[in-house]
Specification:
6-stranded mixed beta sheet; globular; ATP-binding; alpha/beta; 10 strands; ATP hydrolysis activity; single chain; ATP binding
Length: 228
Amino acid sequence: MIEMVNVYKKYPNGIVAANGIDVEIKQGEFVYVVGPSGAGKSTFIKMMYREERPTSGDIFINGINLATLKPSKVPYLRRQIGVVFQDFKLLPRLNVYENIAFALEVIEETPKVIRKRVMDVLELVGLKHKARMFPTELSGGEQQRVSIARSIVNTPKLVIADEPTGNLDPDTSWEIMNIFEEINSRGTTIIMATHNREIVNTIRHRVIAVEGGLITRDEYGGDYGYES
């Protein structure tokens, strides 16, 4: 599903965030991306949804080469990918239902389809009873659940999560992980950058470690591998 071939990324300030990365990720996998701060994890993640473009090399998502994809086609690519951020990125003037529905409105889905899909994902994340509340009325964990619901309402084959539990307390983090596990069990590929050692060591999946712009470790059922 995802393939990076000899990918380099050098920023204008001279920092090399990807230094010849080669990796393949299959449909349905759950992959943790770990590594110290500044190691290149965020760049690795962002290149998968074309927030960043490689300096050289090829990145394929479902056969589409992101390195050569025209800017006008990027919005269509992102409709196939769900992205979850550490800081939620919810629209403050829209309620929970409207925040999730917005992702479908921009692709001009019918009101009937929008209502069904929004209510289905709200049920999955346990927030049907808070559909009319606004982000400021929710806890951090609830806001992250809304963010996850929004990311999967288009039924994407790939969900990319960048430190999704970074701003959450431990109990809430486990609740969020249970949701990601359920999403993955339905066949969705999950790529998650994280610093949460306990989660990685407890819920075992493939671990890709990034350091100095290189993949230094790639193992199935691996542990976090760094000191807290």
